[in-house]
């Protein structure tokens, strides 16, 4: 197969070069003059002489950073007006680069401020400046321009940016530091329950706000004394924390919940998060494990805090059985790296404690309490039956039969058993009850030989 003729190739290259030259001349440096003048006229210095003072934060800090800028403007220039940038590929360029592109090539021009919405809580969405500049004053009265730019997920950009432009570097630095201080005072992540995930689009990082769970002690069915031991280790008041510090005791603690799938480990974690009012909670699982460094830094900064790592066996398998993963070393190093006097709790869950890396559970300073969450005994199954029945009339002899016939099942199995019984009565004209034989019928459905896989997925009794 022949290639392109050399003469044609040269002609094409010349034509493309001419096209680009014409485009550059059409844009021209003067095209972006008005945008640049908005900055340089205010600060009183040419763009090339402005120091480069910036603050870059993860994209989930955008709302917090925006609040810091708002607070700064309210204090130093309440009437300040934002201006924006127009031009292609703004998501690929930082705030200083856009100004340089406007001055040198006319690539960007004065435009409208770009606004966006961002989540500030489980039920709160706020409007933020996605891209814009605003003239204001430094604390000493000298002129500065603040630029704010959020991350652009579609371009794989996981950071938001604050940039301060002033004729003097020390002035710009002072403004940046003050904005950051004000932002930290208004941090929307502090005291929140956060779930880290990874966007399938370009692998971008995301943080979601979750409502803090509200579970009572009656909602958690564990063997006698187990929940008390867990709460004693994890939950404490600010008063108790202060007394521990005064007595020279460490605050950092680690909890490992282990047991078969469906026994209630995640449910127990949710109960603990509900009890830890005022604590920042970060939950990691699955593909978000790669965000462990960011999550650990966040809980250290926003303490008192708790970091939940679900299914830790996925990254912390025994080194003698499996190839060592970088995430395993990262996890161990991050736990060790948090100071003993940091009010940070690590809660790890696993379905396969036998495969766990021994260094994780044996060495001090990593995990100091390991608790089994077992399959419920007869008393536990009866309590679960009544819990999931939610006050519906329940036939006592039938309940006793079901409890006896479900030895070895998990809490998830008992919940599904009650749900199926309710579904069988939901279409009846009479009020729904669990009296008669409806639970027996639901159990027969689950134990049918055609439901073998379903039983396994729900945590049915293991083979004898």
Q: What does this protein look like?
A:
The protein is an alpha/beta fold and 464 residues long. The chain folds into 3 domains: 171 residues, TATA-Binding Protein, CATH 3.30.310; 172 residues, P-loop containing nucleotide triphosphate hydrolases (Rossmann fold), CATH 3.40.50.300; 81 residues, Helicase, Ruva Protein, domain 3, CATH 1.10.8. 40% of the residues lie in helices and 19% in strands. The protein has 16 helices and 14 strands. The strands form 3 sheets. A 7-stranded mixed β-sheet has the order 9-8-11-12-13-10-14, with helices on both faces. A 5-stranded antiparallel β-sheet has the order 1-7-6-5-4, with helices on both faces. Strands 2-3 form a two-stranded antiparallel sheet. Helix 10 links the parallel strand 12 and strand 13. Helix 14 packs across helix 15. The longest helix is centred in the first third of the chain and has 22 residues. The chain is elongated, with a radius of gyration of 30 Å. The model has no long low-confidence stretch (mean pLDDT 85).
The number of distinct β-strands equals 14
Order of helices and strands: HHEHEHEEEEEHEEHHEHEHEHEHEHHHHH
Rg, rounded, reads 30 Å
Low-confidence parts, pLDDT < 50 over ≥5 residues?
A: none
Main beta-sheet annotation: 7 strands, mixed
């Amino acid at each position: 197969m022949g290639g392109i003729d050399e003469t044609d190739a040269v002609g094409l290259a010349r034509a493309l070069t001419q096209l680009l030259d014409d485009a550059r001349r059409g844009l021209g440096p003067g095209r972006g003059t008005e945008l640049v003048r908005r900055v340089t006229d205010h600060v009183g210095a040419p763009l090339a002489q402005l120091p480069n003072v910036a603050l870059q934060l993860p994209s989930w800090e955008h709302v917090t950073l925006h609040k810091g800028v708002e607070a700064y403007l309210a204090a130093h220039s309440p009437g300040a007006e934002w201006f924006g940038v127009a031009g292609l590929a703004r998501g690929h360029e930082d705030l200083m680069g856009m100004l340089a592109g406007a001055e040198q090539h006319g690539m960007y021009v004065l435009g409208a401020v770009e606004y966006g919405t961002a989540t500030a809580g489980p039920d709160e969405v706020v409007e933020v400046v996605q891209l814009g500049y605003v003239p204001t004053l430094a604390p000493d009265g000298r002129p500065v321009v603040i630029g704010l730019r959020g991350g652009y997920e579609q371009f794989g950009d996981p950071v938001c940016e604050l940039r301060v432009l002033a004729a003097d570097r020390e002035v710009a630095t002072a403004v940046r530091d003050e904005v950051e201080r004000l932002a930290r005072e208004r941090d929307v992540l502090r005291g929140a329950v956060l779930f880290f995930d990874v966007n399938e689009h370009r692998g971008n990082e995301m943080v979601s706000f979750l409502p803090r769970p509200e579970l009572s002690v009656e909602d958690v069915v564990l063997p006698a004394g187990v929940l008390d031991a867990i709460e004693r280790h994890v939950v404490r008041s600010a008063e108790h924390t202060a007394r521990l510090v005064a007595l020279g005791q460490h605050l950092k603690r680690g909890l490992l919940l282990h047991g078969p799938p469906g026994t209630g480990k995640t449910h127990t974690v949710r109960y603990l998060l509900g009890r830890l009012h005022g604590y920042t909670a970060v939950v990691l699982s699955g593909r978000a494990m790669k965000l462990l460094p960011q999550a650990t830094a966040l809980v250290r900064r926003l303490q008192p805090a708790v970091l939940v790592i679900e299914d830790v066996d996925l990254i912390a398998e025994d080194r003698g059985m499996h190839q060592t993963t970088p995430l395993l070393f990262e996890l161990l190093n991050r736990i060790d790296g948090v100071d003993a006097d940091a009010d940070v709790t690590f809660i790890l869950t696993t379905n396969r404690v036998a495969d766990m890396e021994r260094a994780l559970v044996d060495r001090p300073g990593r995990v100091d309490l390991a608790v089994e969450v077992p399959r419920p005994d007869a008393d536990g199954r009866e309590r679960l039956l009544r819990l999931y029945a939610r006050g519906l009339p329940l036939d006592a002899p039938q309940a006793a039969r079901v409890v006896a016939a479900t030895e070895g099942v998990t809490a998830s199995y008992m919940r599904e058993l009650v749900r199926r019984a309710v579904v069988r009565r939901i279409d009846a004209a009479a009020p729904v009850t669990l009296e008669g034989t409806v639970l027996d019928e639901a159990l027969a459905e689950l134990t049918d030989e055609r439901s073998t896989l379903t039983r396994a997925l729900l945590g049915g009794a293991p083979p004898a």
